[in-house]
Backbone:
């Protein structure tokens, strides 16, 4: 059930066109097969560029893991050299029983610019 990179773009284009049509037909109670299986295959095989993801030393482990998980949906974390870099600075502030989390994200190319 794998998808070649060439097929991935055309599959994404077709899904983008078919999904609104599916919703319209379902709204009018027209029986149609679900596109869910095709969506899963597409997203499981979608191209995810490799990037270096770094965090400042003070980052909370739970916050760091949540951010890495979110990035992994669209990117492939890697330690390889000469990749785009995403640097994260995590700040937390607790007051009045509420914790505020602020993340400053800096993205740079492989030369660091």
Residues:
């Amino acid at each position: 059930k794998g998808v070649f990179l060439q097929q991935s773009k055309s599959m994404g284009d077709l899904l983008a066109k078919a999904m609104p049509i599916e919703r319209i037909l379902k709204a009018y109670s027209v029986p149609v097969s679900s596109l869910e299986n095709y969506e899963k295959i597409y997203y499981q095989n979608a191209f995810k560029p490799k990037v270096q993801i770094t965090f400042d030393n003070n980052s909370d482990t739970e916050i760091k893991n949540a951010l890495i998980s979110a990035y992994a949906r669209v990117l492939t974390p890697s330690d390889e050299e000469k990749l785009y870099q995403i640097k994260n600075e995590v700040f937390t502030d607790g007051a009045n029983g509420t914790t505020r989390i602020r993340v400053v994200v800096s993205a740079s190319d492989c030369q660091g610019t």
